[in-house]
Specification:
It comes from Streptococcus chenjunshii. By secondary structure, the chain is an alpha+beta fold. About 25% of the residues lie in helices and about 30% in strands. The protein has helices spanning about 45-50, 70-80, 130-145, 160-170, 200-210; strands spanning about 1-5, 10, 25-30, 35, 85-95, 100-110, 115-120, 150-155, 175-185, 185-195.
């Protein structure tokens, strides 16, 4: 630990500090999926994910409900197309080109080079699949290697167990709970914070790469070794 001239402990000195950059995604190509910026052309195809056929339980921990009116949905998505923060991304199936869900990079802090993964909305076909994990991996890779973020965050309602489990499985580390952090849908929200740091990314990247290898999947697409059990 460094000590200043007053005998006080201070943080590590950083050299050549530069501001971060805003995301400018064209296409992040994976084996099973492609992640692209949300554009007008994706809106109609995503209505199955955001519209009345979406299971209601998918929206418990989100601040909105599924849309029952296409015009209102279209306006919402057109606003998201223009948004720079959150910066909305679409997950496309490589085989069919179908839009399977969306997520976003948000709370982008250029001064401190921090970004957050949020607004995760998956179709039933995407949930708990190799495609979903690869999509998250592709964005992590972009965040650390193209945006040069020092810190990548994941936050969720303390009661949202699937999101908590996903964060830990993906390699984020739990940092604590912000009590009474927000009100949404007239309810209290205690928010759990998770993060991954730039120095943790190389080992996590090796873990993802090993897990995503075709050798780790059966002919029917079942994983042989779980992501959390991969050793690097």
């Amino acid at each position: 630990m460094a000590i200043n001239e007053f005998g006080q402990e201070i943080g590590e000195q950083l050299n050549n500090v530069q501001k971060g950059i805003l995301p400018q995604v064209t296409a992040l190509e994976g084996q099973t999926v492609k992640v692209v910026k949300l554009e007008q052309e994706h809106i109609e195809g995503l209505y199955d994910v955001y519209g009345p056929s979406s299971p209601l339980e998918n929206w418990t921990y989100l601040p909105i409900e599924p849309f029952t009116d296409f015009t209102a949905y279209q306006q919402f998505m057109e606003d998201n197309v223009k948004s720079q923060d959150p910066y909305y991304l679409v997950i496309l199936d490589n085989k069919t080109g179908e839009a399977l869900g969306t997520f976003s990079l948000m709370r982008i802090d250029l001064q401190n080079r921090v970004a957050e993964m949020g607004w995760v909305v998956y179709s039933e076909r995407l949930k708990r699949t190799r495609m979903a994990t690869e999509a998250q991996f592709l964005v992590m890779e972009y965040v650390f290697e193209d945006m040069h973020c020092r810190r990548y965050e994941w936050k969720c309602d303390h009661l949202n167990q699937p999101s908590r489990q996903a964060a830990l499985r993906l390699g984020f580390k739990y940092e604590g709970t912000f009590r009474q952090a927000a009100i949404y849908k007239g309810r209290n929200r205690d928010t759990d914070w998770f993060s991954m740091l730039d120095q943790e990314w190389p080992e996590n990247k090796k873990r993802f790469t090993k897990w995503l290898s075709d050798d780790n999947f059966t002919a029917s697409g079942e994983q042989k070794v779980a992501l959390q059990k991969i050793n690097v």
